[in-house]
Automatic annotation (TrEMBL):
One of its GO terms (molecular function) is sulfotransferase activity. The lineage of its organism: Bacteria, Pseudomonadati, Pseudomonadota, Alphaproteobacteria, Hyphomicrobiales. GO terms for cellular component: membrane. It comes from the Bacteria. InterPro entries: P-loop_NTPase, Sulfotransferase. Gene3D superfamilies: P-loop containing nucleotide triphosphate hydrolases. This is Sulfotransferase family protein. It comes from Phyllobacterium trifolii.
Amino acid sequence: MFVSVEKNFIFVHVAKTGGQALKRALRPYAVKKASGQWRRLLSHLPVAEDVDIQFGPHASVRWAKLKLPRPFFEGAFKFGLVRNPYDLAVSRYAFVRGQGNHHRHKDAQKQSFADFLRQERRRALWRPRDQSSMLCDFDGKLLVDQVYRFEQMEEAFADIITRLDLDESPELTRKNASKRGAYQEYYTPVERKLVEQIWKRDLEKFEYEF
């Protein structure tokens, strides 16, 4: 997550939605995070802080609402990117298998795509894996002002540049892009059903189809 007082925005970075390219453009305007072990500890507690909170890279907008000063949160332009869940699931699978330093890399080498999704489903029982959990409140209401789509990234970046009056347009280089074929090639009815269980809210709220 990036927070900027200068440009008055809160960027909620949903993993594997192309956010790395955007963060390169937003970083010069982001508030410098507070240092120190005390602030690091405080950042994990449900108490309000100032705008220099040590947010994690993929903090949710719900957490931002809780932690940031209310006047700033309410007045800032809040936005994030989403991606077709069928494509997102394949991207996560390929990313974990391709990153040797990922904590799930070793296990993923032995997993089929279906096995990987079953593990995602189990993990979702204690921590939601969908994009809606990053961008909505507990009742499913969007807490961001704008949801952009990975599939329309050029248009999204152009709009962000205009809205925030940034000096330069971000380059559309996908830093963590995983190497793979078309996502449709990974699916049988089994995998499709698993994705529809894990990302049910996303498919409905953002109107994605296979």
